[in-house]
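Appendix B, Record 12. Input sequence as logged:
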Amino acid sequence: MPIKIISSSASTSGLLPKGPVSAPLSDPACQVSSLDVAFDESCACTTGLWECSPGSFRRAVAGGEVMHILTGKGSFQPDEGPMIRFQAGDTLFFPPKPMGSGVSKTPFARSTWLCRRLR
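Logged structural output:
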């Protein structure tokens, strides 16, 4: 796979509309746009850019995740533990299976790496 660069990723216009989040908690549901960047099958991760409109949603990812917030701000309330607030410039490291509820206070965009176990 050649090296891929997404110039000015915080303001890229190359994201594709994906529709509402899979588990909305607000009305209207948060709308998602994304750009997937594929690795070959030997890599146990998927990565890309993800953008969300304001609202709340249930986290639908069971694997580990690293996200770097490019724009906006929000929060995540784990089912167990204290609320986590984030904003542009923050990097979050989620271990596998941290379920909970996310709130997008403003439109926010992130670069994301989703990791799955190899077994």
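Residues 18-115 form a domain with the Jelly Rolls fold (CATH 2.60.120.10).
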